[in-house]
């Protein structure tokens, strides 16, 4: 197992959490502390890293299954137990708690169809549902893209040629249909850039198959880390200089650049470790194990902590510290419990039902 993949998952999840925490602390209805948002806004890069990581890991694990239809069931079982059990349990718990305490219950789906779509992680219009297309667990919008990507990989497993034909047709239709006045192939609210990020991850996996030299891998790993730090510093400077109006993560070219840099970081980290480079530390590996729970849980926790702190009239530094520490402790504790009680049993069931050996999972995707 490549420990650096787990480490990158941890950093991605914590980055997204920092982004949402900073935005909450900066919100006028809470503390209006905009300075922290200038520092944490770059954390949204973790979202790009997640997409690229997913493309990389899924291709690393399942490219050997392309053109082997008998591997479709093991693939589906693994993907189902990876995504749905934890999401459904957490969605149910948050819905119950929201109803009981009256915080966040306005985000509950109205009607059985939006609820069913939310439970199945089917894409929904952000302008109608939850502001992101995912009610209650608003970051679950990214899982909707993830499932589409899983479907594409399934096509390649069933038949490699079928996969290429369908992908080529989808890409062509996506660009050509609007030009000839035909209806859009995908809903207007689904952005093609996220599928590009998956493709960037797959491309990094293909490059990894060329077996980079130790020197090249080390240079990529160290160089990408250094460049991320430089870009974060630049992002902070731009945010302060423009009063929070200019963020690298909001610029389309900046997003693609960060996704490409994420691919370089993943490629360098994994190839360096494969050739004897440093393994990730125990703490970041553990946080990587919890990353899915951290990702899904952090926003509801931050929201509740912010509302409770405001209701208790904790202002200034005391309130900010209470929200920050409380959110971090509650999120990590909850994610650890969810990993132990839901994720691990689910992955064990998937391996047994699909006869999928644990040693084939380089990053426990």
From TrEMBL:
One of its GO terms (biological process) is polysaccharide biosynthetic process. The chain crosses the membrane at residues 42-62, 83-103, 136-157, 164-182, 194-212, 224-241, 247-269, 290-308, 320-342. Keywords: Acyltransferase, Membrane, Transferase, Transmembrane, Transmembrane helix. GO terms for molecular function: acyltransferase activity, transferring groups other than amino-acyl groups. Signal peptide: none annotated. GO terms for cellular component: membrane. The keyword Transmembrane applies. Residues 5-339 form the Acyltransferase domain. The keyword Transport does not apply. This is Acyltransferase 3. It comes from Thioclava atlantica.
């Amino acid at each position: 197992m490549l420990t650096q993949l787990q480490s990158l998952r941890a950093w991605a999840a914590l980055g997204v959490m920092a982004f949402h925490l900073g935005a909450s602390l900066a919100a006028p209805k809470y503390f209006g502390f905009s300075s922290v948002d200038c520092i944490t806004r770059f954390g949204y890069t973790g979202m790009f890293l997640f997409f690229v990581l997913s493309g990389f890991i899924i291709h690393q694990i399942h490219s050997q299954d392309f053109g082997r239809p008998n591997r479709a069931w093991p693939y589906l079982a693994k993907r189902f137990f990876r995504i749905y059990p934890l999401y459904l349990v957490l969605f149910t718990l948050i819905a119950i708690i929201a109803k009981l305490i009256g915080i966040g219950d306005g985000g509950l789906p109205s009607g059985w169809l939006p609820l069913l779509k939310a439970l199945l992680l089917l894409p929904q219009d952000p302008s109608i549902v939850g502001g992101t297309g995912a009610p209650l667990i608003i970051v679950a919008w990214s899982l909707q893209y993830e499932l589409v990507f899983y479907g594409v990989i399934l096509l390649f497993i069933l038949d490699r040629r079928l996969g290429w034909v369908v992908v080529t047709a989808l890409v062509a239709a996506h660009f050509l249909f609007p030009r000839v006045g035909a209806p859009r192939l995908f809903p207007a609210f689904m952005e093609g850039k996220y599928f590009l990020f998956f493709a960037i991850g797959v491309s990094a996996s293909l490059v990894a198959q060329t077996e980079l030299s130790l020197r090249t891998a080390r240079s990529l790993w160290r160089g990408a880390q250094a460049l991320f730090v430089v870009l974060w510093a630049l992002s902070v400077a731009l945010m302060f200089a423009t009063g929070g109006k200019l963020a690298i993560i909001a610029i389309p070219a900046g997003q693609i650049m960060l996704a490409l840099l994420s691919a370089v970081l993943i490629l360098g980290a994994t190839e360096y470790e494969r050739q004897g480079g440093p393994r990730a530390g125990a703490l970041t590996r553990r946080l990587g194990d919890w990353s899915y729970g951290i990702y899904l849980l952090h926003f509801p926790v931050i929201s509740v902590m912010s509302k409770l702190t405001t209701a208790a009239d904790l202002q200034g530094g005391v309130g900010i510290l209470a929200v920050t520490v409380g959110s971090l402790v509650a999120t990590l504790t909850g994610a650890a419990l969810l990993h132990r009680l839901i994720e691990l049993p689910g992955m064990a069931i998937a391996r047994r039902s699909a006869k999928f050996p644990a040693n084939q999972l380089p990053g426990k995707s």
